[in-house]
């Protein structure tokens, strides 16, 4: 993306492409970022939000903007089931409704839902929120990744923030061949051939991008899934010394913080139960986790060093079919959403 198409100077479609698609769910932060009775300011899809949790654990999300004068609600006081703005004391509950204006009881603001309050869900230790536009305020259907809901699967969430556009983080996962080179010295990623041919295999929820001549050796395939939330699934073969459970799986999601920063969510999982689960968790915490953070660091360093407009001056080849397919999909969706809003007068 060039300077002429940044969110500040470009079209509405450019803004969505740069800061994240609307009308779907996105991960925001790990659940533990907001303790019971606590609140936290977060940024997602280029906008500021407030997460606050009641003492009973129920979580709410509000636009970080008081409906009175626009002050940050995140600077205010947590009152249990509502937040009071520090500036003039205006109180807003978890639905975004003004419940009290202390300076003028009975004020017309009271009882009005004036603050955006996205629906939220928590899964696998992460907060997911639905970001709809003016034409789609109600949340779309959400089907969660099977490894995060299957009782026979055990997963660990790893979270980090990278100074890179969200699209580059997803493209990195749709590029299996980089594992053979960037991660060659890391853990089990050095196996297999350094040459390969790939194909795209469409599914009813997205598509596979996979090697046609190698399977079960390295990072040989990845599936993009669009089930109300976008996520990827991939598998890394593991030796018997890594404990029970067979291949090591990864579910990945990203949060477009803004046009230049991304929150990455990686659930590392294996299909294990009973004593095998305990063995897997012990090995992961004592041996495997450090190695996989090392792999993520390699991805971070590479992506953060890429120019923001790297995708405007490329020379792609057959291994990049998965990336090209992804870009076309996201660009088309951004243009579709922008066109609908413009036609309805909401641009």
Automatic annotation (TrEMBL):
Organism of this sequence: Streptomyces catenulae
Name this protein carries in UniProt: Aromatic ring-hydroxylating dioxygenase subunit alpha
PANTHER family assigned: 3-KETOSTEROID-9-ALPHA-MONOOXYGENASE, OXYGENASE COMPONENT (PTHR21266:SF60), IRON-SULFUR DOMAIN CONTAINING PROTEIN (PTHR21266)
Record EC number: 1.14.13.-
GO molecular function terms noted in the UniProt entry: dioxygenase activity
Primary enzyme class: oxidoreductase
UniProt-listed InterPro entries: Cholesterol_7-desaturase, Rieske_2Fe-2S, Rieske_2Fe-2S_sf, VanA_C_cat
Domain Rieske: 25-129
Keywords: 2Fe-2S, Dioxygenase, Iron, Iron-sulfur, Metal-binding, Oxidoreductase
């Amino acid at each position: 993306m060039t300077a002429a198409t940044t969110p500040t100077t470009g079209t509405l479609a450019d803004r969505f492409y740069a800061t994240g698609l609307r009308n779907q769910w996105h991960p925001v932060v790990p659940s533990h970022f907001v303790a019971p009775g606590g609140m936290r300011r977060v940024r997602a899809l280029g906008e500021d939000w407030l997460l606050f949790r009641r003492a009973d654990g129920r979580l709410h999300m509000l636009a970080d903007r008081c409906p009175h004068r626009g002050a940050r609600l995140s600077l205010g006081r947590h009152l249990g089931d509502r937040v009071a703005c520090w500036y003039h004391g205006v109180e807003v509950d978890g639905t975004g409704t003004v419940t009290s204006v202390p300076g003028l009881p009975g004020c017309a603001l009271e009882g009005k839902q004036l603050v955006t309050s996205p629906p939220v869900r928590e899964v696998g230790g992460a907060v997911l929120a639905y970001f709809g536009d003016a034409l789609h305020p109600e949340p779309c259907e959400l089907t969660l990744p099977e490894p995060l809901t299957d009782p026979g699967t055990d997963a660990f969430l790893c979270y980090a923030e990278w100074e890179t556009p969200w699209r580059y983080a997803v493209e990195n996962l749709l590029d299996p061949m980089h594992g053979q080179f960037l991660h060659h010295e890391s853990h089990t990623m050095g196996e297999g051939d350094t040459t390969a041919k790939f194909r795209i295999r469409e599914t009813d929820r997205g598509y596979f991008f996979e090697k046609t001549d190698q399977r079960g050796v390295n990072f040989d395939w990845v599936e993009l899934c669009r089930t109300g939330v976008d996520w990827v699934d991939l598998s890394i073969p593991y030796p018997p010394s890594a404990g029970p459970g067979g291949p090591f799986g990864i579910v990945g999601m990203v949060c477009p913080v803004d046009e230049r920063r991304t929150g990455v969510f990686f659930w590392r999982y294996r299909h294990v139960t009973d004593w095998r689960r305990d063995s897997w968790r012990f090995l992961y915490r004592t041996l495997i986790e450090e190695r996989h953070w090392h792999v993520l660091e390699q991805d971070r360093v590479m992506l953060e060093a890429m120019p923001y407009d790297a995708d405007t001056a490329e020379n792609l080849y057959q291994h990049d079919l998965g990336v090209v397919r992804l870009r076309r999909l996201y660009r088309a969706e951004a243009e579709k959403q922008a066109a609908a809003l413009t036609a309805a007068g909401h641009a």
